[in-house]
Amino acid sequence: MTKHRKKILLIATGGTIASGYTEKGLAPRIDAEDLLSYVEEHREFCRVDVLQPFSLDSTNIYGKHWLELADIIEKNYGVYDGFVICHGTDTMAFTAAALSYLVQNSRKPIVVTGSQKPINLPVTDARTNLLDSLRFASEEKAHGVNIVFGGKVIAGTRAKKERSKSYNAFSSINYPSVAVIQDGRIVFYIDDKEKVAGDVRFFHELNDRVLLLKLIPGMDGSVLNRLFPYYDGVIIEAFGVGGFPEYGEEPFYQEIRRWSDAGKIVMLATQVTHEGSDMEVYRVGKTIKEDFHLMEAYDMTLEATVTKTMWAMAQTGSAEEFRRLFYGTVNHDLLLTPV
User: Fold this and answer.
1) Looking at the predicted structure, is the pLDDT value of residue 275 above 90?
2) According to the model, what pLDDT value does residue 1 have?
3) Buried (b) or exposed (e) across 111-144, using 16+ Cβ within 10 A?
């Protein structure tokens, strides 16, 4: 039986799962080897090596760390059957989405997990989440980037943290969970490994000069003018299915013209978590979309929209090529596409 166990690389990055109490609050303190010692049951189905590239609260994780994680996976891809990344929950959905774009067509599983409480507490979700993640990474049907958390397997581009303290912190947005894990048993809802086409592809660049702007009633479009020099693209979280306000001394219409004429990316997303955008419904969205050939995120999560924009902007300077890349479905990120 031992020779059939899968070989997994556990990559520890800090987060609550590895935290301990200090005078100034929780901070990462537990190293990768110690994390593994809390789930000895993994020896029944896998062999695990550990690596710790950094130890951070996930609040401090961003683009350079995503690239580092993708590089680690690339360099070790031929050696291991699967990968498990231990990560803080606050930016976990961003990391899972980013890795979905940086590592594409992977027939091997890349699991991101963490916990709401440290692994060394008597009562914690950490041990279950870590053991479930190692189990899923050892499963023959598993592939691609997924978050494993609270008994659910969620596609890396569809996860969102919706609860700040509860163990069921993550939800799959506008898409079913890939699988559930109960009592060590994995039940797949989406079993599509055979559809993975081509070789695994690794990407090595992101353009993080992306602004996310959340509209509030009364906001003047001039805010975009002030931010214009600092960003190559902007994602605007508009109201409802997607509408831009028409008031203010410098309306959004005028500022979007400035960004578009300069060849910068302007993307529309919705502040509403479920069901996505549709700018064609109301005049306040339809007019500006048609005049500027404006792009929208449709049913994508905000985390996927942000990281896919960073990825696609880094691949090309052409607006049309950016559009093609952005509207190509990656890891179940987009169901609704422009006609």
Assistant:
1) no
2) 39
3) bbbbbbbbbbeeebbbbbbbbbbbbbbbbeebbb
Contact yes or no for 96/112 (Cβ under 8 A): yes
**pLDDT (tens digit per residue) in 13-37:** 999 999 887 777 777 778 888 999 9
Could you give the CA distance from residue 170 to residue 154 in angstroms, rounded to a whole number? 8
pLDDT digits (tens, 9 = 90+) for 232-270: 999 999 988 887 877 766 678 888 999 999 999 999 999
Number of residues in the chain: 339
User: Residue 239 has which token pair?
Assistant: 């109201």
Q: Are the C-beta atoms of residues 131 and 39 closer than 8 Å to each other?
A: yes
Distance, in Å, from the CA atom of 328 to the CA atom of 338, rounded to the nearest integer, reads 11
Catalytic residue among 13, 16, 95, 305: 16
User: Is 337 marked active-site?
Assistant: no
Q: Is the pTM of this model over 0.85?
A: yes
